[in-house]
Amino acid sequence: MPVVRLASETDVTGWRQAARALRSRDVAPEETLWTVDGSGADLFGEAAPAPAAGAPAFTVPKTFVDLADRVILHRSDERFSLLYRLLWRLSREPNLLHIHSDPDVQKARHFAKSVGLAAHKMKAFVRFRMVAGPDGLESYVAWFEPAHRVAEKVAPFFVRRFASMHFSILTPDACVHWDTKALVVLPGADAADAPTEDRLEDYWLTYYASIFNPARLKVGAMRKEMPKRYWRNLPEARLIPELIAQAEARTTSMVAQPHSEPSRRVVRAAQRASRDAPYDGQALSTLEEVRVGAQLCRRCDLYCDATQAVPGEGPLQARLMLVGEQPGDREDLAGRPFVGPAGQMLDQALAEAGAPRDQLFVTNAVKHFKHEPRGKLRLHKTPNTGEVTACRWWLDNERRIVRPRVIVALGATAALAVFAKPIAIGETRQRALPLADQVKGVVTYHPSYLLRLPDPDAQARAYAMFVQDLKFAWSLAG
Ligand code: URA
Question: In this structure, are 327 and 450 located in the same domain?
Fold first, then answer.
């Protein structure tokens, strides 16, 4: 019986090569044994055959390729043989993947779904701890035990999200390391290799406790979304039993409270107190401090109705910073700037301008979503000058930490935040305006303005100018 020895548990390339060779020789699935090198299985079997010379080429549907890429990450020992069985059967039953009642198809789809879920959980539940490297550089380490072998697959998600951070995610299967330039994958590690506490943990716990709304508590849904197996690596998990225990009493007392407007004196005192906390007015030195600190911001009232603060993102060494107005509905939910419709238009324009988004720092003048309810919708409301001024503290910190050569203000609110005075966009486009410390400012339209233009010709003209402005700013940034 041919024995296929794969190089690792996630050796997709090895599996593909061997499966092609076996299928070209029409080797039946039940005549093949799949094993991972060093596992000790059937050491006395025949070696796997080479591809048959002159065998006709064959192709497989893309759905199968995508399915196989996921199924291989499942922990079941059966996954390699299951996939080969499907591949072999596909040559006889080309419609096989559409037969949802077929036990092999069902099982493969079930495996793929579990892998997708494990990847989703990893994106949600990885918690980094800060460590100081030997060279004094801050880096972040997380320990995570995914239900399936998804660490390498999910790593690019964290790279996109934390492009400017040095980080490592350690798992029992593989460890991924990012140093802001290259992603390296090394063999798995042990929980003891990861740190368990850092100074950001208290901020995170305060934030988690502050966003926990007892009136919205659904224990079943919460347990489903955050299964217990992940709790031991989640700092906030230790708060959960107590928060759940207090939920009923807190909800009853919230309902019993008469609705009243706090007096202006109380609001001002609270704002003054929180304006200085938690940093006592000192400038911040890392983007992580901005990210965590902004969640605690009480410098104006916008935090009250927003899901979370949305700080900027992008590489620390970005030469170009884009400043929008404020997060929209989608950004408020996702916690990332420019991911909704305006973000899609921005991405398209950046691509046409030849300015790769992953090399830019993208942020907003105001970090919380200002909106008013309209039925089930949350309609955007333009932030006022007081809110823009209050939030400038965060933008100024981002500017100082990233030190871009060029800052592009997208629209009037961003221009007000960047230049600290109102600027007429139409008259100032395509000019390098001086800012402090040799930084140049550029103003252009906001992508939402383009989306709102009712006349398609006017929209196309304004869009072309927008692309031109981004191109100008990108070349100015060198
Ligand atoms: N509009 C903005 O100004 N910023 C975003 O992040 C999204 C929409």
Answer: yes
